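User: Structure tokens for this complex, please. No commentary.
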Amino acid sequence: MKITAARVLVCCPGRNFVTLLVETDQGVTGIGDATLNGRELAVASYLTDHVIPNLIGRDPSRIEDMWQFLYRGSYWRRGPVQLSAVSAVDTALWDIKAKMAGMPLYQLLGGKSRERVLVYGHANGGTLEETVEAVGRYIDMGYKAIRAQSGIPGIEKAYGVARGTLHYEPADAALPTETVWDTPKYLRFAPKLFEALRKEYGEEPELLHDVHHRLTPNEAAQLGKSLEDYRLFWMEDPTPAENQQAFRLIRERTTTPIAVGEIFNTIWDAKELIENQLIDYIRTTVLRAGGITHLRRIADLASLYQIRTGSHGATDLSPVTMGAALHFDTWVPNFGIQEYMRHSDETDAVFPHDYHFADGFLHCGETPGHGVTIDEELAAKYPYSPAQLPVARLEDGTMWSW
Ligand code: GCO
Ligand code: MG
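Assistant:
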């Protein structure tokens, strides 16, 4: 079996997506997602100019060897651009293998470990009251787990808050929107939000919260402690993880569970966090961390330390990633939860898929492969539109982590 052609499609059905199609001499095509929010064309070029010429004529069934060739075989390795490209190839090759086998992808991984995949949705509001209401709407839709983000008094354009009634889409302008961050205001406000949520909805709904790398380790420990009474499912990205040891300071001082890893690209980014049991959930994804092939390694390492998966699933990961992730989630023994930010109707129409939501869970389909395709004709109607993620500064102008 040989790869005969590969193509990159960039489209913007409501937001930008980069999709890789790998064609074979058996007439079977595999599809992978290569979207890197705000840096889409860098990955498209990495694929088109540097990866695709290497794919032609190779055997697509040699998935592991291809991974090693593209990662180890590349002298300049690691980072989100390379690993998003490698992930797209890997996802496309698993799609081809499963289609050739006539099986849904989870079967090739070892079969089902569960019947359905617990997901969390995104509730947000401009004020505490609006956020409480938004969480209620998610409960009404059947969600068992809900992430709550809120506008913060005195902070303009807080992280995670949608403008209008739309889903939250942070990449909102061709050049980054400037936002302002104030840690003391946030630390005073966050416990009030979760106190109000528990008061309104009781003990049962799982509540999650994303700190989005904004705090120092000590501040993160303060936040974690102040939220302990409200029993969060997790506190996400409490501090940047470049220095993995920083999490020791948080870990030693609070029992609030910690989730990290949506921006990680390899097992090396998470190694110390996992081996020292500094986190509870690892958020690496099929798309950002080397496809199914590498994510499986990360999940296996995590399983040794009773750390569970909680894959990133924001809307900037296309339905192709969601489809592949759901097969992974259906198989992976140490599954925790899957993020599920709903895509827009335009996005869903461009990427027909066989997964579905019911009663707070996503169910992957039984179509051979990962179950997601692309309608190329429709995609062509939505050309690429430049959009970058915002940046954050402190009130005095100092650049901060967004
Ligand atoms: C999340 C994330 C996203 C990111 C986005 C950046 O937990 O869902 O933090 O909302 O901000 O993926 O492109
Ligand atoms: Mg996040």
